[in-house]
């Protein structure tokens, strides 16, 4: 179970491959569920040209580890990987990766969805958008 | 001494990201806010944490704690 906070752009499929390569799970997992969140160039009807992701270093990791522990108690998952970007981000760059390995698809799908929804609800990240007009605004909770 | 941390739009509103406060007895989160920010009511939607765990405004803060105030989170 791994949580990574990245200050630079990351390649989600490389992260997944590298993580899976170092797992000692050959023959044990039958399902891998993956969610990747990517920055759009529009939001709330406006063109967005960049974003800054702020976070509460330390609390972010602590909350994500708690979320993973809850998921492990609810579902039979073998492994999971969460990667989240912070700092300055451009459209089309990945923001978040959640990946879950399990024996069967049900656990992988359900745990991946749960981890992502709990991350959005509880992990202390905040998005500051820079619009095409150069105006900046904090993204508010929808 | 306790450490106060502010994040995102709340940090911008207050013009500071952290500060220290001496307390000589336990205070609630709300009381800590009022001591540190006497001219501003704690915004309704503010989330509060002590030592990096979410807590309600009635939670008692003790010497040595790190207290954080921040707006609703928008990650992912």
Short description:
Chain A has 142 residues and is an alpha+beta fold. Chain A is built from three helices and nine strands.
Task: Map the helices and strands.
The complex is a heterodimer of chains A (142) and B (76).
Chain A: E1 2-6, H1 12-21, E2 31-38, E3 42-43, E4 46-55, H2 59-74, E5 77-85, E6 87-89, E7 94-102, H3 105-122, E8 125-131, E9 136-138
Parallel strand pairs in A: 1-5
Antiparallel strand pairs in A: 2-7, 3-4, 4-6, 4-8, 5-7, 8-9
Helix pairs in contact in A: 2-3
Chain B: E1 2-6, H1 8-14, E2 18-21, E3 27-28, H2 29-36, E4 47-50, E5 53-54, E6 60-61, E7 66-70
CATH level 3 topology of chain B: Ubiquitin-like (UB roll)
Largest interface: A-B, 27 and 18 residues
Tally of extended strands of chain B? 7
CATH superfamily of chain B: Beta-grasp domain
CATH architecture of chain B: Roll
Number of helices of chain A: 3
Give the class-level CATH name of chain A. Answer: Alpha Beta
Strand content of chain A: 35-45%
Major sheet attributes of chain A:
5 strands, antiparallel
User: What is the overall number of helices of chain B?
Assistant: 2
Overall description:
The complex is a heterodimer of chains A (142) and B (76). Chain A is α+β, with helices and mostly antiparallel strands. Chain A has a single domain (2-138), classed as Aldehyde Oxidoreductase, domain 3. Chain A is 31% helix and 39% strand. In chain A, strands 3, 4, 6, 8 and 9 form a five-stranded antiparallel β-sheet that branches. Chain A has a four-stranded mixed β-sheet with strand order 1-5-7-2, with helices on both faces. The longest helix of chain A is centred in the C-terminal third of the chain and has 18 residues, at 105-122. The two termini of chain A are 29 Å apart. The model of chain A has no long low-confidence stretch (mean pLDDT 97). Chain B is α+β, with helices and mostly antiparallel strands. Chain B has a single domain (2-70), classed as Beta-grasp domain (Ubiquitin-like (UB roll), Roll), CATH 3.10.20. Chain B contains two helices and seven strands. A five-stranded mixed β-sheet of chain B has the order 2-1-7-4-5. In chain B, a hairpin with a 2-residue loop joins strand 4 (47-50) and strand 5 (53-54). The radius of gyration of chain B is 12 Å and the shape is globular. The model of chain B has no long low-confidence stretch (mean pLDDT 97). The interface between A and B is medium-sized, with 27 and 18 residues.
């Amino acid at each position: 179970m791994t949580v990574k906070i990245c200050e630079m752009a990351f390649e989600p499929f490389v992260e997944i491959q590298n993580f899976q390569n170092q797992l000692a799970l050959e023959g044990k997992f039958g399902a891998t569920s993956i969610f990747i969140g990517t920055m759009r160039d529009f939001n709330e009807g406006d063109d967005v040209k960049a974003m800054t992701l702020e976070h509460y270093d330390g609390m972010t990791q602590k909350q994500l580890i708690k979320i993973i522990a809850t998921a492990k108690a609810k579902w039979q998952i073998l492994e999971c990987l969460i990667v989240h970007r912070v700092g300055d981000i451009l459209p089309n760059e990945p923001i978040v990766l959640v990946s879950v390995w399990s024996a069967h698809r049900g656990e992988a799908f359900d745990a991946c969805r749960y981890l992502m929804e709990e991350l959005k609800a509880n992990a202390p990240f905040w998005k500051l958008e820079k619009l095409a007009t150069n105006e900046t605004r904090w993204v508010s909770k929808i | 001494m306790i450490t106060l941390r502010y994040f995102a739009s709340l940090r911008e509103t207050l013009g500071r990201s952290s500060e220290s406060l001496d307390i000589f007895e336990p205070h609630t989160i709300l009381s800590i806010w009022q001591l540190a920010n006497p001219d501003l009511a704690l915004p309704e939607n503010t989330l509060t944490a002590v030592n990096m765990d979410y807590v309600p405004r009635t939670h008692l803060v003790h010497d040595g704690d790190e207290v954080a105030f921040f707006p609703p989170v928008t990650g992912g």
